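Action item from last week, closing it out:
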Amino acid sequence: MYYSGNLSINPTQASEIEIVKPTKAFSRIFNILTVGSLNKKQERQTFTAISILQQFNTVFRNLKITNIIRLSYNDLPFYEDKEGVEGAFHNNFFLIGHANQKINSTFLVNYLRSPRVQHLLLTKAGSSTIPDLNHKDFYSIEFPLPPLPEQKKIAKILSTWDESIITTEQLLANSQQQKKSLMQQLLTGKKRFPGFKDEWKVLHLGDIFSRVTKKNTEVNTNVVTISAQQGLIRQEEFFKKTVASDILNNYFLLEKGQFAYNKSYSNGYPMGAIKRLNRYEKGVVTTLYICFEVSDFERCCPVYFEQYFDSGLLNKGLSQIAHEGGRAHGLLNVKPSDFFKLKITTPTLPEQQKTANTLTIADAEITTLQQKLDRLKQEKKALMQQLLTGKRRV
């Protein structure tokens, strides 16, 4: 369950909102970052915006809300994080000076990024509404400093891992982009496989899918939620806690292979995300989702439509049936009856299956690269814990 709320400004009190004058430090840093392209008025407006975000953060923390998922204005998000990373908006920057003859800069950067030091910095920043790390506390941090030649060796080792991580990130981004391009070609008929010449047919979603409204009478406790990147996943894994109601018998019960449509905006899914239950035999979902299953397997390949829904090709139709009145509880106002009337253009079942196989192979390559990237990051983290603490010498 998500809790949502509205923040509003009383027009009669607008005069109480002061234009904040940037600090000299902010002006200097912002001027450098923007190469002097912004004038004083724009700098002041930017600084004011940051200050307002700080005020939001203060309000949330006073309400004991630290797991912020989304901040938006007129349904346009300016902060989005489905996993709800804790943090604070701040504008207190300062430069770090160091003696080049004693400390290698790459070694220093890696040390400051290590989990132990990051935890220490947060501790020193305090537990106030807006944590603040002052210069004195920062420069009071003690750390084991090996001789400069050893620092350079450690920096070189960690840089090697950084290079591998960057290379893998680029390969992953390229594979994701190639797959996206392939989807746009194969799922629209712009590119077709040899031997397939049959004309594509226009269908309604309701011609090949039927709605699922089965309630959780068996009191299944496997509550799942839709993640844009991970699909239907157990809430405990996604949120690191249970956010569902204690009473689950009114939830919908999904079975493996069935679909669910989450009508809320998420990163990359402006009209909501449709995902298929693949990980578990059964899963329980909120009744705010539109759930459905294949009703005509002679005209519908489930894996093909799993790719189709993920491509965004349904967004245009969804935008046309999202009714006036915007969003209720952060959800698009899409009626199930209108959803199943959406038109789709589909190839024959054999062509669907061929397309699905091709895109599944592309997914496998992306998964392999993602796993490699995760492994490299974990290996670097382990190396940092060993090399930057002196537990392992070079």
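Closing note: The chain is about 40% helix and 15% strand.
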